[in-house]
Amino acid sequence: MKTWKIVGVVTVLMGMAIALQAELIEDFESYADSTALNTDFSELQANTTVTLGASDGVGGGQSMHFNANTWASPWWGGALYDWSGSLDGVTAVDMQIEALTGTHGGNYFKAMLYDGFGTEIVSGSSIAVSSISSSGYQTYSIDTSGVGAGTTVSTVGFFFEATGGNGPSEIRIDNIQTIPEPATLGLLGLSVAVLMFLRRLRV
User: How far apart are the C-alpha atoms of 77 and 74, rounded to whole Å?
Assistant: First the structure.
């Protein structure tokens, strides 16, 4: 096969791989203030607030503060963030979370993905707020590997459940992104390796 044909094939492979690389859904850097942030939430429980953190995100950028007081009705906290995206080639949706110092640790946090009809697609694990670090971000992951092809997300839900006692809880959320299937990353690596090999042949 001629070199130009090989380069053409590799270019196509790289294009396919790059198209399925990790997609940053939200890093909250584009919002001017909390009012602007709230316009992208289609539903917010009466006891729940979402506000913009100015410089406490990953790397010192902006973050979203998710707060709910489960002492108040409806006794659980919830907010739905509007995001439309495909889960094809996606093995997980990850986000960075960090608890605020002094927040009530008895509540449990959970994130979920919904389709355009408001039906749950998949949810992450329910974790105690007391287990979330308040001295650095940690990864919270929603496993989407079992989701069928052609599935599209319409909203991302964030929830506090009063499983371990009622009280106000607040966490920071940042860098929500999709994680591609390992095969996609391998395809990209193979493409780069072939290009490097061709470059050596030309030397």
Answer: 8
Distant-in-sequence, close-in-space partners of 57: CB < 8 Å, separation ≥ 6:
27, 28, 63, 172, 174, 175
3 state DSSP class of 50: strand
pTM score, whole prediction: 0.80
Residues 53-75: tens digit of each pLDDT: 999 999 999 999 999 999 999 99
Burial group, residue 151, by CB count within 10 angstroms (0-12, 13-18, 19+): middle
3-class state of residue 154 by DSSP: strand
How far is the C-alpha of 70 from the C-alpha of 163, rounded, in Å? 10
Of the candidates 51, 68, 58, the one whose C-alpha atom is nearest the C-alpha of residue 110 is 68
Calpha distance 164→154 (Å, rounded) = 30
Q: Give 15-62 pLDDT, tens digit per residue.
A: 444 445 678 999 999 999 999 999 999 999 999 999 999 999 999 999
